[in-house]
Amino acid sequence: MNVFVNLVLTLQMLSALGMIGLILVQHGKGADMGAAFGSGSSGSLFGASGSANFLSRTTAVLAVVFFASTLALAYFGNLRPASTGSVLENAAVVAPAAVASSAAPDAAAAAGASAAGAAQIPDK
Question: Fewest Cβ atoms nearer than 10 Å: which of 17, 18, 24, 111?
Answer without folding.
Answer: 24
